[in-house]
Each structure stands twice: as structure tokens, then as C-alpha cells.
Amino acid sequence: MPMFVCERELPGVTPEMLQSAGLRAKTCCAEMTAEGQPVRWVRSFFLPEASQTHCYFEGPNREAVEEANKRARIPFLRIAQVVEMIPESV
Amino acid sequence: MNCRCNQPVDFAATHAIALARRRGALEVTADDLLGGCLLAVARFGIVDLGSVVVDLDELGLLWRDDPAGSPAGLHRVSYSDQAVALFDQAARIARAALPARSSLPTPPVRIADLMAAVAFDQRGLCGELQMRFGVTSKLWRAGLARQTPLEEDASPVPVDVAVRPPDREYLSPEDAAQTLGVHVQTLRAYIRSGKLPALRLAGERAIRIRREDLAKVLEPLQAET
After folding, report:
1. Is there a contact between A21 and A6 (Cβ–Cβ < 8 Å)?
2. Residue pLDDT tens, chain B, 225 long
3. Can you tell me the distance from the alpha carbon of A25 to that of A47, in angstroms, rounded to the nearest whole number?
4. What is the pTM of this model?
């Protein structure tokens, strides 16, 4: 399935707020998957110095990933499809 | 001890979303989260926290219904601002269980953490518990504390990875989901869509999946040409 990155700016975010957001993302993805739109939160990276996060989701399309984030009430700047590269593939 | 209070909060969230859906609501509220917690930890419709005993029938919570059986896909349900604040609070409560200035990672948020977060709400279902049943915030939190004693290891192992699924011919939905490496809601979706055959224990609601049927949801990868 395609992968997407969700870029966020979260000034003042605390570790607990990040954990809360992760919980909401996880449960909303599970709900959408149960509805027949498989979306999966893969992982996130937090950049403490910039208060930014990059959250990676697998989903059928950008709209599904956006829907999951809206349901979870997690703000984002943009969502873009990415191409994954790992050392083993180069 | 009601060990269900120690389960990851995901189970309560599933119930909460189902409650919101049944109401025809667009958002999951604090009441839905509390109802979801109660449904997740109840046994036979009773939540026993020692000094506090809650009968879900008296609260109008349909504990006999399977949340996976609630209509999905009819409308979107998102978390309300109230629900977001409660999840934040629950994560703070989970963190507060660690020793001060601990370098340990924040432990997973449990149902008990979310139930403790709701205890401070004077409105809605929580307010009703207080007004009708005399369940004060203090009694509620004391009951939760008794059900969730502190452990020496402040990094609890998530329930869904702690134990290898048993090598039985018939698996519960949770064990089958763990075997496939998917969320239990995903597995229930497979069952609803007919992709994965399932059986019920005769005369009961419990579902079982034959281990050999799990392969039916898998397909070989096509080699790239």
C-alpha cells in the first residue's frame, strides 16, 4: 500500500500530548480499517528543536490518511505520498 | 483484582466509538469514553472496583452487544475536543505513575488511566454516577487504585505482545489477530466481509476462528517484472 508522510508543527507539545495523539491515531486507523478503508499508522519521528513531527501512514490514498488524522483531531500542515528507501534496497 | 483495568486503552476506545455511532453522533464525547471504559472492563455487566460497584444496566449501557457488531461505515465519528483533553489527561496520569524525573519511556496508557481522567468530570455520565449512585471522584479513584496496584517494573509489557498465541486449533479473535499481526478490529472486518470464516460457540456470543483458515486472508506476492 502507498505510504504517506503527515507533517505537523506542534509548538508546546509535551510527550504526553504526543502519546495521546498516537493513541487517537491508532484507534481511528483501526476504526477506518474495520469500515473497509485500511489505514495504518506506521511510525512517527518527533523533532524536539522544531516541535515538528513526521508521521508515516500506509493507506489506499491521501484522502484516507487525511480522514484518519481529522477523526483523530491531530492537526497537520500537509500530507504527501512518499517512497520508502532502505539500505537493503540500494 | 479487575485486571481488565490494566488493558491498553484501545479496547475502551473501540467501545466508545461504537457508543457514539449508536447515538448517531459525529463525535466521541467524554460520556462515550467513560461508557467505553466501563464496557471494556465489565464482566457480566458489572464493574466492581471494590468500594464502587456499577451495574451497566442501570446506566443504560448495552453490555450484551458486541461492539464489532455495531454498524460501521454509516457515518464518520471523530474525537471531540473533550475527548482529546481526556486522552491528554490520561497520558499525564500514566506518566505520573513513574518515579519523578524517571528516564523510563512513558508507559502505555491503560483503561484505568482514562477512567481516572474522567473521574474529575462533574457532568454527564460521570456526574450521574455521583448524583444517583454516590460515586464520588475520591471513591472512584480509590477503587481504581485498588484494582491497579503499582508494579516494580514501571514499563509494563503491552498485553498484545507479551504472550505467544496458544497452539490451539480454534483461536479467539484476539489470538487470531495477533497470529496474523493485525489489529483485532481488522480481523473482525475480515469476518464481516466474508474473507475469513468464523464460528460461534453454540449458544454463546464468543467467536472462534480455525487456525488453518487464517491462511485464507493471505495471498502470495507477485514478483515484479
Report:
1. no
2. 456 888 889 889 999 999 999 888 999 999 999 999 999 999 898 988 887 888 888 888 887 776 555 555 557 899 999 999 999 999 999 888 776 656 666 678 999 999 999 887 777 888 888 777 778 888 888 888 887 766 544 444 444 444 455 567 888 888 888 788 787 777 888 888 888 889 887 777 778 898 888 887 887 776 655
3. 19
4. 0.71
CA A33/CA B217 separation, integer angstroms: 15
Q: What is the CA radius of gyration of chain A?
A: 13
Compute how many other C-beta atoms are within 10 angstroms of the C-beta atom of residue A51.
13
B66 touches A at CB < 8 Å: no
Cβ separation B79–A34 shorter than 8 A: no
Q: What's the CA angle centered on B111, arms B43 and B98, to 5 degrees?
A: 135
Instruction: Determine, for residues A27 and B17 on separate chains, whether the beta-carbon distance falls below 8 Å.
Output: yes
The one-letter code for the residue type at B93 is I
ipTM of this complex: 0.89
In the prediction, which pLDDT does B150 show?
A: 62
How far is it, in rounded angstroms, from Cα B34 to Cα B158?
Answer: 22
E strands, chain B, are: 27-28, 46-48, 53-55, 78-79, 170-171, 199-200, 207-210
Residues of chain A positioned with their CB less than 8 A from the CB of B88: 16-17, 20
Grid coordinates of B130: 455521583
Cβ-count burial of A43 within 10 angstroms (0-12 exposed, 13-18 middle, 19+ buried)? exposed
Chain A residues near residue B77 by CB distance under 8 angstroms = 31, 71
CA dist B41 and B2 (Å) reads: 7
**Which helix H or strand E contains A3, and what residues bound it?**
strand A3-9
Read off the C-alpha cell for B141. Answer: 479513584
The residue count of chain A comes to 90
Contact B82, B114 (CB under 8 A): no
